[in-house]
Amino acid sequence: MTALAPVAWQVVSRKLKRYDVPPLRMQERLGHASLPRPKGPLVWFHGASVGESLSVLTLIDALKGQRPDLNILMTSGTATSAEILAKRMPAGCQHQFAPLDAIGPVDRFLDYWHPDAGIFVDSEIWPNMLVRARAAGVRLALVNARLSQKSVEGWKKYPATSAFVLDQFDLILTQNRQNADYMREMGADEARVKSGVNLKAMAKPLPVDELELARLRGQIGDRPIWVAASTHKGEEETILAAHAKLLQQVPDALLVLVPRHPERGDEVAQLIAMGSRSVVRRSKGETPRADTDILLADTLGEMGLWYALSDIVFVGGSLRAIGGHNPFEVASAGGVVLSGPHVSNFAETYEAMERIGAARLVESSEEIAKAVQSFIEDPKALEAAKTAGHGFVSRYGDKLEEMVSLIMEKLNLNEGAAP
């Protein structure tokens, strides 16, 4: 990693520069802090990107509820995550870009911040970060732990290394039983592995600009609306074909299309133009008119607005082998979930939601159009699906307190505990 660090720095610095990240903040990837360390105990949370970082906000609130004196440092690797976290972090939190996983950057980071505990999220298993932090006396947890079977098989080729890296954690809380089994197969200490729940199930509803929501509703009126959220390259074609079929049966339907990566706005707009559909773009400040077929929501940080605008949401990343995206956000916002079949990232969740009628898996443009039409034309079925989804999400609330107590104990964060 030391040998690769200069190459890694060139890659990540170019990415950050494209998003106009200031040079001072880019240096954080080399372990140079851009903020003062607060006085008092500090807990370091690390997540790769937006989803991982946001998934722990509820956990942070709960930790600070038990220990208000805790300071929180959040690290992540992307400019998008930094931008969104800046808007949504609770009081007492700071954000820095994560140091590259090489000795120099990691040691500079640790020497400056001196965290009392480190909580890594999902599949963030960085050997240098973990080993150097543990050697510096930082107690570590992996929460919401999730690895694909492919990743597990890769780690298992090096059993001694795998067991050594996982041994740096004092606690491993997995998303489900399968991932707990994966961790044990990789050599994790049985006593340190606990099967938990997906943190995303306990997250607060996404923020909504109520004034903007009212304005949009006034512009759209009583037109039927459906949302296709977090779509990826290669998925929009199917979504647009589905909307074209829907318009044959529901001529005044409006599609809100939300690409996973807003910077793809121009590309997606060209796809829409090829189908000769009327479109307005959120990024250009355009507003829907009576003849608008599609609202292209190519902006960042407004997903809560779109989920509040419509009760019918197709969640992308699922028509291709990407693994699917978070259905909990839709359900907690009061919507019904439609998704493609590729949902390995949330396999147990979708299986349970589909079983109780809170989600429906669809594969083709025809199936998507029929599902959307059925919910538009059958308000009772839509309400039943929404109620099922709300009940599904609410059952996870009691798990948070149990998780916090375990983390506080294993990481010695209870007041008066020995460091």
Write the layout of secondary structure elements.
Elements: H1 5-18, H2 23-26, E1 42-46, H3 50-55, H4 57-66, E2 71-76, H5 79-88, E3 93-97, H6 103-113, E4 117-121, H7 127-135, E5 139-145, H8 149-156, H9 159-166, E6 171-174, H10 177-185, E7 193-195, H11 210-220, E8 225-231, H12 236-249, E9 254-259, H13 265-274, E10 279-281, E11 294-296, H14 303-309, E12 312-315, H15 328-332, E13 336-339, H16 347-355, E14 359-361, H17 365-377, H18 379-394, H19 399-410
Parallel strand pairs: 1-2, 1-4, 2-3, 4-5, 5-6, 6-7, 8-9, 8-12, 9-11, 10-11, 12-13, 13-14
Written account of the structure:
The chain is α/β, with parallel strands linked by helices. The chain folds into two domains: 208 residues, Rossmann fold, CATH 3.40.50.11720; 185 residues, Glycogen Phosphorylase B (Rossmann fold, 3-Layer(aba) Sandwich), CATH 3.40.50.2000. It contains 19 helices and 14 strands. The strands form two sheets. It has a seven-stranded parallel beta sheet with strand order 3-2-1-4-5-6-7, sandwiched between helices. The protein has a seven-stranded parallel beta sheet with strand order 10-11-9-8-12-13-14, sandwiched between helices. Helix 6 packs across helix 7, helix 12 packs across helix 17 and helix 17 crosses helix 18. The longest helix is centred in the C-terminal third of the chain and has 16 residues. The model has no long low-confidence stretch (mean pLDDT 92).
